[in-house]
């Protein structure tokens, strides 16, 4: 992951390196995949509402995730 992108996320969300690594592991995301997502973020932004909706639909199906 680029240093600039990495630093921006740390500053924006005020989360530790360990938390970032844990979240990457949970979503099974590699640095290469994160770079790809960052590169195409403007395209992805056009579909963000659909992506978030789909994400929460998947979460709601999981017996291990309790939603508010």
Textual characterization of the structure:
This protein is mainly alpha-helical. It has one domain. The chain is built from 5 helices and no strands. The chain has helices spanning 3-13, 17-26, 31-39, 41-45, 48-61. 0% of the residues are buried. The mean pLDDT is 82.
Overall average pLDDT: 82
Shape: globular
* Total domain modules: 1
From N to C, what is the helix and strand string? HHHHH
Percent of residues in helices: over 70%
Rg, nearest Å: 14 Å
| Major beta sheet summary | none
Tally of helical segments: 5
- Structure class: mainly alpha
Uncertain parts: none
GO molecular function, one term: heme binding
InterPro entries: Globin-like_sf, Globin/Proto
Task: Draw up the topology in text.
Layout: H1 3-13, H2 17-26, H3 31-39, H4 41-45, H5 48-61
GO molecular function, one term: heme binding
InterPro entries: Globin-like_sf, Globin/Proto
Keywords:
heme binding; mainly alpha; 68 residues
Would you kindly provide a brief summary of this structure?
By secondary structure, this protein is an all-alpha fold. It is built from 5 helices and no strands.
């Amino acid at each position: 992951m680029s240093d600039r992108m990495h630093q921006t996320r740390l500053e924006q969300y005020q989360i530790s390196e360990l938390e970032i690594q844990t979240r990457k592991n949970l979503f099974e995301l590699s640095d290469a995949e994160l770079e790809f997502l960052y590169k195409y973020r403007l395209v992805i932004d056009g579909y963000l509402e659909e992506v978030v909706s789909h994400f929460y639909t998947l979460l709601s199906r999981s017996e291990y995730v309790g939603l508010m």
